[in-house]
């Protein structure tokens, strides 16, 4: 066969590497949502959703209808005394790409019991018992629906709202704070990425020249620049094997917020177990305390008057609350919760 029998572009395409990347490209294009969103992992995640009552917390389960008519599930876990609830911060918990909201209850329990916060959780569309199928646009609608619900809530609507997100949940949190600059008093993100595109070369090196095929759209690197006044806490596991820790550092450096910016890294934290590292919850507690004092002027007088009644206080014991290890899937439902003195 003469050398020039095939056009060179075709021979390239059919060469072993070319074929592999063409096939990889097609796979990437078609299945990228399935690679990112893992609502059926671990097994049972679409049918079994642990309840706050199993962790000794009172709650309402609310079914929210999104503007595109999807019914998503949420837990509202307020402080029991209405006055206490009104003076407490409300943390909206945006979970990562696997499991459902129930798998994160041990962490919510710390926020609720130790920090006396109100906690609000949701299972995104297609997760847990929520209807629908996950996709970028849908998760954005879900986070907005959750926020709107909290703001309209007779008690929680009067509180300071803080977004908290791990991994993919960090991207959801950055996005919703960027779009609602006046709604949030704080943002706490952990082990999240600059963008899905920038993750691909790290997760699937073979496809690094094909990231332009990726239409998943969580552009946190640019969204975080739109956050100009909200205080942000960056929680970074230095041993994160999934999202390179450099992504978190770059988000920190990119952030232009005039609000407080706190960087906290955990030497031994991996992607899923950063929350069990020593100092994790104290970092959150200190951030919540700072936010309580860092309010726009009109709110300050009122806060001074209610400060005495706020439960979160500098006198609280320092503690590391959660110990034990994640299960093979990295789900926190298997964590043992215990209190130890930090010193
Ligand atoms: C990606 O493209 C560069 C040059 O553009 C090339 O050197 C490299 O081998 C390609 N990598 C892969 C995995 O195809
Ligand atoms: C990290 O792990 C090493 C080895 O187990 C240990 O010696 C070190 O104290 C740990 N560091 C922190 C901050 O927990
Ligand atoms: C962390 O969780 C993800 C799923 O969210 C899983 O793919 C990964 O294997 C887990 N990593 C570890 C170290 O448990």
Automatic annotation (TrEMBL):
One annotated Gene Ontology cellular component of this protein: membrane
Membrane spanning stretches: 12-31
SUPFAM superfamilies reported for this sequence: alpha/beta-Hydrolases
Residue span, Serine aminopeptidase S33 domain: 117-219
Any Pfam family matching the protein: Hydrolase_4
Molecular function (Gene Ontology), one example: palmitoyl-(protein) hydrolase activity
Keywords: Membrane, Transmembrane, Transmembrane helix
UniProt xrefs under InterPro entries: AB_hydrolase_fold, Hydrolase_4
Name listed for the protein in its UniProt record: Serine aminopeptidase S33 domain-containing protein
């Amino acid at each position: 066969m003469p050398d020039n029998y095939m056009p060179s572009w075709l021979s390239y395409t059919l060469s072993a590497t070319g074929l592999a990347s063409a096939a990889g490209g097609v796979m990437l294009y078609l299945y990228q949502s399935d690679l990112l969103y893992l609502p059926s992992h671990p097994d049972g995640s679409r049918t079994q959703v642990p309840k706050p009552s199993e962790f000794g917390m009172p709650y309402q389960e609310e079914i929210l209808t999104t503007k595109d008519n999807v019914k998503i599930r949420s837990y509202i876990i307020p402080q029991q005394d209405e006055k206490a609830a009104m003076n407490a911060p409300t943390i909206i918990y945006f979970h990562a790409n696997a499991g459902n909201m129930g798998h994160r209850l041990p962490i919510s329990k710390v926020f609720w019991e130790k920090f006396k916060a109100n906690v609000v959780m949701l299972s995104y569309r297609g997760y847990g018992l929520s209807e629908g199928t996950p996709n970028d646009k849908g998760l954005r609608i879900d986070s907005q629906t959750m926020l709107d619900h909290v703001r309209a809530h007779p008690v929680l609507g009067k509180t300071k709202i803080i977004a908290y997100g791990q991994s993919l949940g960090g991207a959801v949190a950055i996005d919703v704070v960027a779009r609602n600059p006046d709604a949030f008093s704080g943002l706490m993100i952990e082990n999240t990425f600059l963008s899905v595109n920038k993750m691909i070369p790290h997760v699937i090196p073979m496809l690094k020249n094909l990231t332009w095929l990726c239409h998943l759209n969580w552009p946190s690197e640019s969204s975080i620049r739109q956050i100009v006044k909200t205080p942000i806490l960056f929680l970074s596991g230095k041993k994160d094997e999934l999202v390179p820790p450099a992504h978190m550092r770059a988000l920190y450096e990119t952030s232009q917020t005039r609000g407080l910016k706190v960087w906290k890294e955990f030497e031994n934290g991996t992607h899923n177990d950063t929350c069990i590292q020593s100092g994790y919850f104290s970092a959150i507690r200190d951030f919540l305390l700072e936010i309580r004092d860092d309010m726009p002027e009109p709110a300050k007088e009122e806060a001074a008057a209610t400060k005495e009644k706020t439960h979160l206080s500098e006198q609280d014991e320092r503690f590391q609350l959660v110990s034990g290890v994640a299960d093979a899937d990295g789900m926190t439902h298997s964590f043992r919760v215990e209190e130890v003195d930090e010193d």
